[in-house]
Amino acid sequence: MSVKTDIANIAQRAKKASQYLNTASESIKNKALIQMSKGLLKDAEAILKANKLDIAAASKEGKSAAFCDRLKLTETRIKKMSADLVCVAGLPDPVGQVIKMLKRPNGLMIEKIRVPLGVIGIIYESRPDVTSDCAGLCLKAGNAVILRGGRESINSNIAIYKAISKAIKKSGLPEGCINLIKSVDRKAVNMMLEMSDYIDLVIPRGGESLIRMVVENSKIPVIKHYKGICHSYVDEHADLDMAEEVVFNAKVQRPSTCNAMECLLVHKKVAKQFLPRVIKRFKAAGVEIRGCRNTASLVKGIKLATARDYATEYLGLILSVKIVDNMAVACQHIAKYGTRHSEAIITNNFQNGVTFFKTVDAACVYVNASTRFTDGNQFGLGAEIGISTDKLHARGPVGLEELTTYKYVIMGNGQIRT
Amino acid sequence: MSVKTDIANIAQRAKKASQYLNTASESIKNKALIQMSKGLLKDAEAILKANKLDIAAASKEGKSAAFCDRLKLTETRIKKMSADLVCVAGLPDPVGQVIKMLKRPNGLMIEKIRVPLGVIGIIYESRPDVTSDCAGLCLKAGNAVILRGGRESINSNIAIYKAISKAIKKSGLPEGCINLIKSVDRKAVNMMLEMSDYIDLVIPRGGESLIRMVVENSKIPVIKHYKGICHSYVDEHADLDMAEEVVFNAKVQRPSTCNAMECLLVHKKVAKQFLPRVIKRFKAAGVEIRGCRNTASLVKGIKLATARDYATEYLGLILSVKIVDNMAVACQHIAKYGTRHSEAIITNNFQNGVTFFKTVDAACVYVNASTRFTDGNQFGLGAEIGISTDKLHARGPVGLEELTTYKYVIMGNGQIRT
Fold it and tell me: Tens digits of per-residue pLDDT, B138-175?
C-alpha cells in the first residue's frame, strides 16, 4: 500500500471514530484510559524491547546523549506514562460543559456547549512518552488522534500503540480513536497536513524547525509554541530579597524548560544594590552571565551581551542581563525580544504591577512570582499538551478545554424569523 | 512608494496603534465610535459623490445589477452605517472581562482575562458598508484594523475611510487604529497575508473564491465562512403544522443569506402527509423544488435532485428535498453535504431532539426553530463580523468576544517553584 493511501485510510478511520467519540460518555472514555494505563504496564517488556532497538540505532547513528535520553524508556518511565493516563481519567470531562446560556425574548433558549474538535493530528519528535500522553488527552476531550512521532522512535511508538490499541478495543470504543502513522517517510507528514477534510487541528511538538515546517505546509489550523524567551523585570520598587529568590528560581530551577527566564531586566535605580549580589549567586550556580555595558561596569568579569543574545532561547545555564532606565523601556525590550510566552515583574508598586500586566503582550504575565509556573498542572488546569504562544483559540497551557470547540444548541417551539 | 513598502508601513502603523489601543479605556473607544458615526453623516455628500464614481465604473464594466446594488450607497444606507456604529458603542466592552479566576494552594491568584487580539486584517468584496462596520467592531474590541476592500469600491472606501479617520483623530486615539489599503493591485493582498509579524488575524468576507484564495496564501491565522448549506429535518414525531411554518420561514424569509435552508429532509412516515402541502406552498412562493425519486413520485411535476444539488448553496428560491428512512440517515446526509453552519430538526420526541443536536456537527443546531436565527443580533450577542464555519477560536457568530484573545495574569508574593 502506498504511503498516500495509508495516510488517507488512517484519516478516514479517525474521522469515523471521532463521530462515535463525539457522543461517548465520560465513563466509557475513563474506562478506556484506565485500560490503556494497564495495557502499558502489561506490555512493558515488549515496549522496552522495542525501545532497545531504537536506542541501538540512534547510538549507531551517533545521536547525542541528550537525544538518546529523551528517546530512552525505562520501567520507571513506563510506570509514569501509565500513571499519567490514570490522572487524565481523573480530570473533569470538558465535553458538554455549558459555557453560556442565552434566553431570548422570543423564547428561544440558546446553549453554548463545549464539544470535541473531531480529529487532532500530533507531529512530534523522538520522545515515545508523547505517544501515550497525547493519545490520553485527546481521547478524554472526545477527539480521535493521529500520531506521527520521530523516525528514531518508531519501534517504541509501535509497541506503545499496540498496547493502547488493545486497551481501546477492550473498552468498547472503536480502535480508530487512536492512530499511529507507521511510515517513517517524511512525505507522510506533508500528506497528513493536506487532509483538512478529515483533520481539524494539528499540534506540532518539538523544536523550532519542526514547528516552522508544519506551519509552512499545513492546510489545517495549527496550535504551536515557537519558543520561550522569558524575562523578569526587577522594578525600582521591588523587594530585592524577594526579587533575588524569584529570578534565581526562574533561571536555575529547571533551565531547559520553555518557561525558564532567559533575560533579567533591572531598573537602574536598584541595579547597583541588586545585581552584584544576584550575579554572584548565579555564578555560584554555574550560570554564565552576558550583560549590557552598564551591567559589565557594575560587575567585573562578565561577557557583553549582543542583540543576538537577547533573541536567544538558551534553554541552559546562560542569562542575559540588561539595566533599563524605567519600566517603559523594560516593556519595550520585552515587546521586541519576547516570544509572548511568560513575562514577570517584581514590584511592590501597585500601579506598576497593573501597568506591566496590562501592557505586556504574553500568554502569562506574572507579578512577584517565578515564570516557572507556566504549566497546566501548576495552574490547576490538569495535564496539558503544551504551551501555546499563539493568540487564536488557545493561549498558554493547552489542556483539555483547549482541545475542544463549542456549538450553539438552540431550542425552540416553532420560532420563525420575521 | 512601492506597494510593498506601503503595505509594510501600514502594518507597522497598525501594530503601533494596537499597542496603544490594548490599554485604551472603554470610554475613549466609545467616544471614537460616536465621532465616527457623526463623521459619516457629516461627510455623507462626499461619500455619495465618491460612490457615484464607483457605480459609474461598475456599470461601464457591465457588472450585474446585484453587484451594483451591493456597491451602491444612499443617504439611507449611510444613516444605517452611522447608526450601527452607535449600536457598537452601546455594546459591552469584552476587554478586561475575567473569564476564570484560579486560586492556587501556594497563594498564586491566576486570572484569565480577555484582551484584544492586536491587529486584524479584513479582506472583503465591493461592499462599502463593510468598511465602517468592520472598523467599528475591531475598534470596540481594542484591535487595530487593516481594511482591504474590493477594487470596484475604492472611491467609496477612501471617502468613508477619510470620514472615520478624522473622527479617530478627534477622539484622541492614534490614527493608525484604522487603516485602509488604497492600492487596488491584487498583489497587495498577498503581501498583507505575509505580514504575520504584524497582523494577528485575517478575516475574509465574501464569496468562496475570495476565501479560498486567502486561506491558500495566508501565513496568518484565518477565521472564515465558506458557505451555508443548511438543512431542516422533519422527524416522524414532528408537529407538521409547526414544521411547515418553520421550514417555509427557513427557506423563504430571506433566501439570499447563508443561514437560509437549502435542503429539506423528511422522514418517510410523514412524507406523504407533509410534502404535498408544503411543496404547494413553496411553489406558490416561487420556490423551485428539486426532489429525490420518492419525492417526485409523491408530488408530480418536480425536477429530480442530483448529488450536485445537495452540494449547492443556492442562495435563492430553489430547494432540494429528500425523503429519508430515519433520523440516522438524515444525520448522515447532513454530515456528507452540510457545511457545519446551521442545521435543524423539527420533532416533538425528546430523545430524537437530543440525539440530533449531539450528533450533528455544526456551529448551530436547532430543535423546532428556523435556521434563519443564526446571527449575532438574534442570539443577543450584538453585532457580528460574520458567521464562522471553522471550529478553532470562533464558531458561529463572530462578535466582539471572538475578536479578542485572553491572557493569564498571575499575582503572587514571591512564589517560586520547587
Answer: 999 999 999 999 999 999 999 999 999 999 999 999 99
State the residue range of the domain holding A291: 230-373
Mark which residues 209-238 of B lie under 8 Å from A by CB. Answer: 215, 219, 221, 223
Helix runs in B61-128, H state only: 65-71, 75-90
Q: How confident is the model at residue A226 (pLDDT cuts 50, 70, 90)?
A: confident
Query: What are B268's three cell numbers?
Result: 418517510
Reading the block at residue B38, the C-alpha cell is 457623526
Q: Is the separation of the CB atoms in B236 and B334 below 8 Å?
A: no
Distances (CA, A) of B257 to B84, B251, B315, B364: 20, 10, 6, 15
Q: Is-contact A235 A352, C-beta < 8 A?
A: yes
Q: What ipTM goes with this model? A: 0.95
Q: Measure the CA–CA gap between A99 and A103, rounded to whole angstroms.
A: 14
Structure pTM? 0.95
C-alpha cell at A73: 524508556
Which CATH number belongs to the domain containing residue B345 in this structure? 3.40.309.10
Residue A321's Cβ-count burial label (10 Å; 0-12, 13-18, 19+) is buried
Does residue B54 sit in the same domain as residue B191?
Answer: yes
Q: How far apart are CA B64 and CA B224, in angstroms?
A: 25
Give the number of A-B residue pairs with CB atoms closer than 8 Å.
205
Contact residues on chain A for B102, CB-CB shorter than 8 A:
379-381
Whether the pLDDT of residue A92 is over 70: the answer is yes
8 Å CB contact of B359 and A22: yes
CB contact under 8 A, A409 and B365: yes
d(CA A327, CA A236): 9
The answer to whether residues A52 and A196 belong to one domain is yes
Lookup: cell for B45: 455628500
Please tell me whether residues B16 and B141 are part of one structural domain.
yes
Q: What is the domain-level CATH number for residue B58?
A: 3.40.605.10
Segment B307-313 mean pLDDT = 96
B1 falls in which pLDDT band (50, 70, 90)? Answer: low
Contact status, residue A287 vs residue A313, Cβ threshold 8 Å: no
B125 and B81 share one domain: yes
Alpha helices in B173-238 (DSSP H): 187-192, 208-217
Say if residue B189 is in the same domain as residue B297. Answer: no
| Nearest chain A residue (CA) to B194 | A216
Residue B214 and residue B261 in one domain: no
pLDDT of residue A2: 86
